[in-house]
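Chapter summary example: a protein plus FE2/S2 (inorganic) cluster.
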Amino acid sequence: MSEGNKPSIEEILATCRRLDQGRKSGARPAESPQPKAEISSPAAPELAAAEAAQPVKESQPQPAAVERRPASQMSVEEVLAAARRKPGQAAATGGAQKPAEAKAAPAKTGAQMSVEEVLAAARRGAAAAKPAESPAAKAPQKTAAAAAEAKPAAPERKTVPVPADTASILAAARAAAKPGPISKAEAAARAKAAPAEPAKPKALSMPERPAYLQPRPKPEPAGPSRRSFFGALVGVIFGSSLAVGFASLFVTNLLWLLGLARFMFPNILTEPPTVFKVGYPDDYAPGQVETRFVAQFGVWIVRYEYQGQPQIFALRTVCTHLGCTPNWLEAEQKFKCPCHGSGFYKDGINFEGPAPRPLERYAIRIAEDGQLEVDKSRRFQEELGQWKDPASFVPV
Ligand code: FES
């Protein structure tokens, strides 16, 4: 016997079998006019499978009509019919309804009953049969209706479909997922058959900071900033009259400093020396006018004769008109001034043009080394009679 004097499934089935065996053997008096029938109802294996798969449940409230007739006086068919009949149907028919009438009602198959209903019906039948068969029947009979009255109503449970036969149970068991490793073909087939993965929930983001927690921008300083100060300074220096004045002062001071530096150094005489040597007297042929010293010393060296006396003298290359430099024309044997056309003979006497007087001579002498030495610091003029001075020529 299970806990709380509630019959177990095995006890219910054993009771049914004993009743059936006793009826076949004739030990039981022929009280019941009902014909003998086999227990092998189509719902029997389903009932056994459901009992094996499901745990023992609490007994459902049993109607009073089922309790009035003891189970020992009922046949197996009546017990199963009573077990299959819903408690609500029994209550609706009233307590005076007989088991025969209940049998006439449409029976519900085992496949259409829930597990709780099958167990409740089986327990009702077992509870009704026990008082006459087992010693426990002497104990006060406790019906399912009384238990339902003593206990609060159990919440309605979900109906579980019972498989129709063993083949369907095995098929359902084989349909489960195959454990262990699988082949590549099976994996590909499962990947194709598998539905698309549901979209992953978005990552939770931090809530937005309220306005009073947002960083506030720094206020601009009231006074001029450093950048504006330097900008204004640059503008004043390079873009105003004051800047122009400062720049002019700077340039003036710079030039003054450069002049002071030049004053601190002595002047360098760039003019050629006034006394210089022009070679030996034999280097000059009679009637020759040497022009190679014109550019450097501004003098012609001439070997010619003046008043019938051959001599070597040095003529100054400056026109006596306005100071231009005449050219020696070898073909014409004369000096010709390019400025106004004054002409001078080989001895320096003017004969054409505006020149008012002959060319001038420099002092010349024979130096200690025998060379001709010209001294430009002394000049001799013909109109003054100075060409007769022996310092103005070297006789040859
Ligand atoms: Fe020589 Fe006038 S300067 S002719």
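Key point: The CA atoms of residues 63 and 91 lie 6 Å apart.
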